[in-house]
Structures are given as structure tokens and as C-alpha cells.
Amino acid sequence: MPASARKRPRRDVEENRADCPFTVTLETDVNKKANKRRKRGDQPDPPKKVYQQLSPFSPVGKFKTHETLDLNYSVEPSAKWQEMTRYNSFVLNGAKYFSEGFIYVANDASIERQQDPAGKASPRRRTEDEWVARILEIRASDEHHVYARVYWMYWPDELPAGTTDGRKYVQGRQPYHGAHELIASNHMDIINVVSVTAMAHVNHWVEENDDEIQNALYWRQAFDFRNLELSSVEPVCKCGQPEHPDKTLVGCSNETCGKWLHDDCLIHDALMRAYERLGKDQPYIPSGEAAKKLEDESDGAKNPPLSPTETGINETQQTIDVKADVQEKAEVAAIPEEKTESTPDVTAGEVAAKGDTPGRRKRAKATNGFTAKEKAAKPYLGMFSGSLKMDSSPPEVEIVDLRENVKGGAKSWTEPLKCLICNTPIN
């Protein structure tokens, strides 16, 4: 069955949106001839012009259903579309746009911002203000009727429910998507070029070349609109997740291994090692030069340098215990203790009105700001933190002890990086 390729349904009346009378239909049964018998006297249907679009996008990953994003389509009204002249470019508000170029296209949010006097001076927010598209073809009947056939680029947040990513169903942004990442698609539409707001710069990012993602939008994955399928992304690290373009990958220095590892996974491994050694109450006792440095710091704290001695001044003592005066102490003691007998009776109805259940304790949803699920996966949360130090040789993870109840020992130290695959120290 033919499928509509409209990205967003247009309302019947759009006062602020540039009008476009054309619709695109994907043709999935092009090779099947219509063999239905016509009754005598029936006029044959006018032939429908079917076009083929070769996709300009060639992702590194693969699709399960179709090998490419190529598709067949038709445009209605067909005759009016065919009558128009094809152009290589168009000029709008002094800017020239070419076929095969990327553009920003206004949506409802950008229209509202443009109409808001306070919003005109505010900076543009990419996900709310524009869609991004690639121009496939430009046609016009005159300077007032210029249209572009486009492929939409998706922000990851726009991935619809039911999208397949490998063996699972997903919706919206995934953990491996970068802040400036787009997803190429074969989602076709025809727009009035008056909706174009600016030229967009979009690079194809091949994961071996990180330079492509520094100063522009980029895409590495593609979305097949016909069956809501994402192209595959190469997994890395022990966790099996793809590379995150905004984060660091660290390569194993063992030539027989050579695997790439996420910085977050390496930090997690170092924190787990620290937690398993020290637990909740054991201080970190360094050895070697680190231990001597810690001892020197401790001696300095115990014996701070004294001011020069002065004539007639008594010898300075190390410390003095400070006690509150009697009046303050009496005021504190005057506060009565809460007793069960003095507590007024509270009915079950009053308790229920406050949202509590009589006879039951409130179940804590989080401890120290972390849920039980988070603590189970990362038991060190709230006790240790870590950061990757790539400028060290070899690179290390700096651990900071956050446990306030633990006395003595060092409060920060470094842990070596170890490959999560072969367990070799990373140099």
C-alpha cells in the first residue's frame, strides 16, 4: 500500500505557514501491474508518474530490511508538478540555496518566536526552532511559487515510538547520541521555500575521523522511514554500546587487544576497585612516596609554625577546649523532650489526608539523592568520585574520598587504568 511521506500533518487553515499544494506518496508496489478487469464503459485511469529517488546518504551501518534508502514515489497533483521548471538553486532574502544543500526549515516554535517581540532578540534554540532538511530537487512555476522536495534530517529526540534499533524498540534520543547529532532519513516531503530560514552545515561523521564533528552538525546513522528502522552503529568497549561523540574513547595499549573503551566505563571500573577495597569505613592508606607526602602534611597540621616570640608573652599552647557558658547551656536544657504521651491523638482520617498510610512507614525513594537501582549498579555513589586524567603518563583516574565519617588516610589518590577486555594496564 502506498504510504504518505508527510513529516507533519498540515492543518486545514494555516495563517502563518507557507502554502504547499503538493503531497508525496511512497510507492511500494511499483513492479506490480494493475490486473483488475475494468467494466465496459469505464474510462482508464490516467497514468501515475512514478519517480525513483537514489538516496544521497550511505551510512556505514547496515539495515535489516532494505540494503539502501532508495525508494520510489509519486507526487500529487502529478500534472501540475510535472509542468513546473526544475532549477539548480533559488535565492531567498539575499541568500542562495542549492540543490543537495542542507537547510533549516521553520516549524511552529520558530514562527511563534518570530512573532514574539521579546523573542526576536533571543538566541535560537536548535531543537525547538527549526527542522533540518536536505534539498533533493527545486521546481517553480514563477518567482512566487517555488518548491523544494526534501529529505528530512531527524533530531534524535524526534525518533517515533516503534523505531527498531538492532534487536530492540526505541523512541527518542539514545544514550550514544551526541548534542549536535542528526539522523539522516528517506522521509520525503515537498515544502514552499518561503519556509526556509537559513543554510545548515551538516557533515557525515565516520567514527574514525573525529575532526568532522567539532564545529558543525553531523550524522552517522540513518532512519528508514518505510519501516521505522535505524541503521546499525558499531559497538565499542566491554559494555557493547556505540561511541558517544561528545565523550572520550581510550584505546588499549596492548597490540593484541587494541579495543576502544568509554571514559565513563574506565572511571566506573576504577571506582568499583576503590569501593571493593575500602568499603564504607576504611581509609585509604597510601604507600611509598605518597605515604611520605601524607605524613609530612599530617605533621604540618599537628605542628603549625608559631609566631615569633615576644618579650613578656606567655608560651603559646597547642589548643584549648571551648565550653558554652552556663546561660546558653541552661537555655538548651530548657527545651522539653518530645514524649509519646504529650503527642495529641491523630485520627486515621487526618493521617490519610496528609498522604500517609496508618501503621506503615514511608518508603524512601532515594538515599542521598540516589535511587536504589542506581546504588545497586554503582554502590560507590556518594562515597567516591572519579575523573580521568589523560594528561598524566600513563593516564590515571583520580579518586576523591567523599566519606565524611572516615578519619585519617588520604582524601584523594590515583588509580591506574586497566583495559576492561584484557585487564592490561593502559600506558
From TrEMBL:
Residues 1-10 have a biased composition (Basic residues). GO terms for molecular function: chromatin binding. Residues 1-54, 292-316, 337-366 are annotated as: Disordered. SUPFAM superfamilies: FYVE/PHD zinc finger. PROSITE patterns: BAH. InterPro entries: BAH_dom, BAH_sf, Znf_FYVE_PHD. Residues 102-234 form the BAH domain. This is BAH domain-containing protein. It comes from Lomentospora prolificans.
